[in-house]
Amino acid sequence: MGALAVGSIVDVVLLSFLVIVALAIVQMKDLLAVIMLTGIYGLLSASFFVTMDAVDVAFTEASVGAGIATLLMLITITMTGRAESPQRHKPLLALFVVSVTGCLLIYGTLDMPYFGSADAPIHHHVAPRYIQDSMQEVGVINIVTSVLASYRGFDTFGEAIVIFTAGIAVISLLSVVYCKETLKEFERVNRSLHDQHLILRVAIKILIPFILLFALYVQFHGDYGPGGGFQAGVIFSAGIILYSMLFGLSAARRIISHSIIKITAALGVLLYGSVGIVSFIKGGNFLDYSVLATNPIAGQHLGILLIEFGVGCTVASVMLIIFYNFADRSELGQNKEKGSV
């Protein structure tokens, strides 16, 4: 009973912090402060998910909500400016729309079972199957991985395609083509700028190998603990983005060029789909990994390993595509102001 009371207090405190941070975000006019508070909101959300025993969701929220999203928003304000523009819209109309939408959402939850109720339909439908039979059918300790990569592999495949489509959309709308003279000018400016931050550059050089190594650990440890392709891809791309921010885009492109990123994004989705096609050819259903090896459990392990690797490649590549294109736009705008482009 004491542990339950402590857990309830922690939940109330975290939810209170979330409300306070949300109100502060609404009141802030400094966009840099808004981005920092948004990152804090993501970390608080991840902490709340941990207390709810949803560790995989917490991992995703920490890496995406507080990690890569913060980095992408930082590069975005270099194009838009740090200060919020004067008010040009009617906030009362927006407040009314949000309030009506919120009330409808709350009304839609009234028919849902109480939180934690043992009589909830999910506890009598799919949950017992996953909990009791996933180890025998899939052979993966982490039930979340079994559900995402095997039981609902179609949904995860769709999510990977959505991410890939987002990358294509960003390329189509924001891609910038530079001439060689412009690239040389960018490299000269970046070199002169980043030489001023020697301590940061040395610290980042030490940290980045560990960040990338941790991404590989998350990628291939999803069978046994929280992690998988989505989280690993975000962490890996965050390491490259951090390198780009300290050493410049020209240095990052020498490591991972834009063309390689585009090919990797497509290959990740292709690898995922190919696993389904191979399983179909071998006599099973689409994305039925059991037929990939003589032992069904070994086949499940092999299929999950391959599709998670495909997801990781696609996610990492699309995140870098978004960053590269936003950063290109930012550099183009800055150099136009200076009259160099």
TrEMBL record:
UniProt-annotated location(s): Cell membrane
Entry-linked InterPro entries: CPA3_antiporter_subunitB, MnhB, MrpA_C/MbhD, MrpA_C/MbhE
Domain MrpA C-terminal/MbhE: 120-175
Keyword line: Cell membrane, Membrane, Transmembrane, Transmembrane helix
UniProt membrane topology term: Multi-pass membrane protein
UniProt-listed Pfam families: MbhD, MbhE, MnhB
Na+/H+ antiporter MnhB subunit-related protein domain: residues covered: 199-320
Domain MrpA C-terminal/MbhD: 17-80
Top-level taxon of origin: Bacteria
TM region(s), chain numbering: 6-26, 31-50, 62-80, 92-110, 160-178, 198-218, 230-251, 263-281, 301-326
Listed NCBIfam families: PRK12504.1, PRK12507.1, PRK12508.1
Family that this chain belongs to: Belongs to the CPA3 antiporters (TC 2.A.63) subunit B family.
Protein name: Na(+)/H(+) antiporter subunit B
